[in-house]
C-alpha cells in the first residue's frame, strides 16, 4: 500500500509519521507539506526524538503535488484543515483523504454513528414536541468533542518534550493504523 502523510511544512509531524510507519511496516510511505519547500531536513526536534527512539530518518521535505496524491492509496493528514484543503484541491481523490486520527481510530466511526443517532433522537423529540432529555444533550456535547478532536499536536517551535508528546500521539495512532491495514490486507 502507498501511504502519504501530509502536514504544513513537511519538517515535523508528517516526516515523523513517515519514519515511524516505515520502521513498523513494509508499506511504501512518503510525506509532504501543503506549504513545504523542497529539500529541507526534518526539524531538529523531530530528528532528535526519532534518534532517541532508535528510528533512522534521512528526510528531505517536498510539497504536495498531484503526482503524489495519485501515487497514494491513502492520504493521511495531521489536521482537519490539511484534510479539507486537500479535498478541495483534489476533488477526484476525496475518498482516500482522511486525518490520521479519523481513519485509524476504530472509535471515531462508532462515535460519529452515535452522534448521528443522538441528533436523530433530538430532532424526533423536537418534531413531536416531546421533552428533551438533558442526558441526550450531554451525550451530544461529549460526542461532538470526540469527533472534532482529530488534529495531531503541532510541535513546531516547541521543546524536546513537545516533540516527544507528538511522537507518542503519532505512535499510538500509527499502531491502530497498522492493525487496520493489516486486517484489510487479509
TrEMBL record:
SMART domains found in the cross-reference section: LMWPc
Keywords, sorted A to Z: Hydrolase, Protein phosphatase
A GO molecular-function descriptor: protein tyrosine phosphatase activity
Domain called Phosphotyrosine protein phosphatase I: residue spans: 1-130
Keyword Hydrolase belongs to the record: yes
UniProt cross-references to Pfam families, sorted A to Z: LMWPc
Active-site residues, Swiss-Prot/TrEMBL: 7 (nucleophile), 13 (nucleophile), 105 (proton donor)
Annotated region described as Disordered, given as residue ranges: 41-60
Superkingdom of the source species: Bacteria
InterPro entries linked: LMW_PTPase (IPR050438), Ptyr_pPase (IPR023485), Ptyr_pPase_sf (IPR036196), Tyr_phospatase_low_mol_wt (IPR017867)
SUPFAM superfamilies assigned to the protein according to its UniProt record, in alphabetical order: Phosphotyrosine protein phosphatases I
Gene3D superfamilies cross-referenced by the UniProt entry: 3.40.50.2300
Keyword Secreted applies: no
PANTHER family: LOW MOLECULAR WEIGHT PROTEIN TYROSINE PHOSPHATASE, LOW MOLECULAR WEIGHT PROTEIN-TYROSINE-PHOSPHATASE ETP-RELATED
Protein family membership: Belongs to the low molecular weight phosphotyrosine protein phosphatase family.
Protein name: Low molecular weight protein arginine phosphatase
Species for this entry: Gracilibacillus thailandensis
